[in-house]
Task: structure prediction
Amino acid sequence: MNKKTVFSLYKKEMLDIFRDKKTMIIMVLVPLFLYPCMMLGMMLIMSNISKESLEKTYQIGIVECEETALVESLLLDEEDEFEYFFETKVYESANACETALNAKEIDVFIDITTAEDGRTSYEVGYFSSVPDSISASKYAEEILRAYKNELRNELIAERFDDYEKVLNPVVIGNRNVATIEESTGSIFGYIIPFMLITSILMGAIYPAIDVTAGERERGTLETMMTLPVKNSEMMFSKFMAVSTVAVMSALLNLLSMFLVGLYMYDSMQLVDTAFGDMNLWQFTPSVIGLLVCMPIFAMFASAVCLSVCIFAKSFKEANNYSTPVLLVFMFASMAGMLPNITLTTKTALIPIVNVALFIKAVFELQFDWTNIVLVLLSNIVYSIAAVMLMSKLFSSEDVLFGEGFRGVKFLEKRSNMKAGQMPGIGDTILMFGLLLLLMIYLSSSLVFRLGIWGTGLVQLIILAVPVFYAWYMKADFKKLFSLKVPAFKHILGGICMWLGVWLLEQVVIVSLAQWFPSLAETSDALNSVITDAGFISAFIVVGICPAIAEEFAFRGFLFGTLKDKWRPWLAIVVSALLFGAYHMNLLQFVGGTMMGIAIAYVAYRSGSIWIGAIMHFINNGLSVILQYNPEWVTKIPVLGKEVYGAGDYAILLAVGAVCTVLGVLLMRNKHIKDENADA
Amino acid sequence: MIAAKDLCKVFVRNIAKKKGMKKNSATKEEFYAVDHVSFEAKPGEILGLLGPNGAGKTTVLRMLGNLMTPTEGEVFLSDTDGREITSVIEKKQKIGYLSGNTKLYQRLSTREMLRVFGDIYGLDKALCEERINDIFKVLDMESFGDNRIEKLSTGQTQRANIARCLIHNPEVYIFDEPTLGLDIISSEAIVSFMKKEKEKGKTVLYSTHYMEEAQYLCDRIVMMYKGKVIASGTPKALMEQTGTDNLRDTFRSLIKEEETDDE
Result:
């Protein structure tokens, strides 16, 4: 990639974007005027309403009887604690009052009767669909209750000397330990993520559409393709330009929010509430955190918008694509409002959610550096990966002159499907998304309800999803899932490779766990589910089920599709990275990716998914056996040692490398080129 | 001025482009939009690509301009040392491509656009400014060169578009129907421009529907029909071959011949 080219293109994109009136309106006017107008307007209306309802004089009807004068004096008393204004009218009966209320002559009335036991009963009559009537009834009732309490206290005081103790035999109170800053911070943490994430996305979507579908629609993309520019350079400059606009719009949003907030703070201080003595400087680190996180998240949002829009043929199509993106972002940004979700090493890796939780955490003045770094890093990695993937996927020729991007085959009706076709890149993205959602939402809840068999059920679903998908699109099962019967030599090679990579994986994991001890915390809950289940069921569910289900999903559907579209090594690495990410745990990510590379390589060389299934089975089965017989581990030479010395590492690495190389040699396949050419 | 012998030759070696024609949403029929075509163009020569609509002229020119990759065969330039240039980026450096579909950035002025393009072609700032001023003089654009392109007339826009292909002083020009839809004065300007560049020793490949223009301008003609080359040679040779006295009739008789052959 040529830096100068990228920069020239970036300058051009910026000039182009900034001369577009629509972008400027969305970017500048919306945040600078809409927010303040909305907030201040709401404040004004609300304060007006409450003021009006307080200052208004209500018409109140009273039924004529002995108590009428008393009630009138209560309502009209100007020296009591209430600041309500009433004008009274006396009617001869409750019916007359009702008629007057219906005719809107009065807002509310008080019916006075005598109950069977001789007590007087006051009943406030109101009209539930008229707001004035409701407020008036509330105020009248308040005054009557105060009168009742006064009478009661007098009665008790007559009979008991220590009437206070009779009324309140114990004292109950509460005390909020959170400082005013902390409670305010948590309110900020609720609102800001949602507003900021949405506004950053809004700032990114329009320029993203403009530089992709817009450029195509205006015919300048073809001009651009006559220039000596590489896909990656073009994509990167567009990414930078969109990110810049998104960051600027986010900053403007933030500034606008800040000014409105300051105004509100000021007006609250005048009212002299508890907020008045809040020390706003305490939020300085939060604001710094926000300012660091925002541009990085803007990069992520831009990458997502670009990946969605780059394949659209027209402005309209790009607009259609961006609606679901906006919805996903909005829902995910609400994670901050859920009480039980906090920033952990796991949630720090979930896109969008992690930023919402990050903002929430910094405003609650909680700074966990591991998580903060994870959030920022993961966002950078996701954005760059997305841009790189885009420059790979983007073929100017298809977008310009072809049918456009038809990567998602699933959206067609089944009757229109061509038998024997292969899924597209879009299908793999959709499939991986489905698998990830299954793991996040279904897995833990099913395990919680059904124990170990819940895991089995999840695996069954993981098998069913790609198989159903492939059936629906009438894919060539044998080709997609590599259902060849493997050669014996290849099985041997696969097992050899498993042993080698497994040993290497142990070395990597042990060293990682030493450097980052916090990563090594295994989920005790999950372990106990496995150990409580009994050896046989654990062996079936953890050892055998994933060996089939995950192989069909990852080496079958995902790798099968990628292999069809990309160069083999790229397909192997990407499918392995997806397999690692699917485990949603940093240590298992590393282990999963390593094993994923090995198994995908075996699947590529042998053209068979079954060897991978055997490798996967040995891998998982072994871990179940060791879990039930932990003492066996210690009997293994070198590997079983509690602490490894340098020599042990060397031995493990050497043996691992030798086994891997031996496996690779055994996996050699003379026919591989011909087979792929046929395919 | 660059001597003709220093400039690139264009080679088109047996290129073919397969395209899918959609019958309905599921089935697709593939056919050759360009069916194994070969020719070459020498420096100092204007090569005309003629043929009816759908003959594959535009596809050939797009492959020459590296906007499309041939399904089979290859397009390359070869410099005086006989070195074959096959890298797409290097080829694009040497080619100026213009078609009805290469639109300009409406929100920029011609000058701004030329600066960006010059930057991308790797010209240094001073040289780029000098080039822009020269081009503005040659194409008589000084009066509107600083206006935004959205405000220009059709003829002015076309001149801005030509300025775009000139900025890197390419050795090969590929023009896809450059005079389509222009008035007499604008199209004469373009025709005389092509002639001048040819005299400088550059290679010009272009397609057109105007037979008189082709007859007057082209040194050699490649006649295409249904993706294939059906005849090639100097306009004179083609006219002699078919026994006609103008290119319009030559075109008709060649097409007729092909159609009877098809049946």
